[in-house]
Amino acid sequence: MEDDGFSVMAATLFGRWEVARYPTREQAEWRVRELRAEAERSPRGHVEYVVRPMRESPKDG
Question: Cα–Cα–Cα angle for 33, 36, 37, nearest 5°?
Fold first, then answer.
């Protein structure tokens, strides 16, 4: 069974990976803002940071 919470994902042209996990959405969004600011100061290609729920919704069928 997966934990409740939110993960911060980094998405690039080459794929995506999990950067961190947080128990609340607010904490995850705060980290995304920090990562975006850091990426603006020191760019290393195009990286998009997003927040995703760790638990996926149940699938029908």
Answer: 85
The first and second tokens of residue 36, run together, are 């975006």
3-state SS track over 47-60 = CEEEEEECCCCCCC
Tokens 């993960």 locate to: 7
Phi first, then psi, for residue 34 (nearest 5°) are: -65, -45
**Which tens digits make up the pLDDT trace of 15-30?**
999 999 999 999 999 9
Decide: 10 and 17 in contact? Cβ < 8 Å.
yes
Rounded distance, CA 8 to CA 28, Å?
Answer: 6
Q: Are 9 and 54 in contact (CB under 8 A)?
A: no
Q: If DSSP codes are grouped into helix, strand and coil, which group holds residue 46?
A: coil
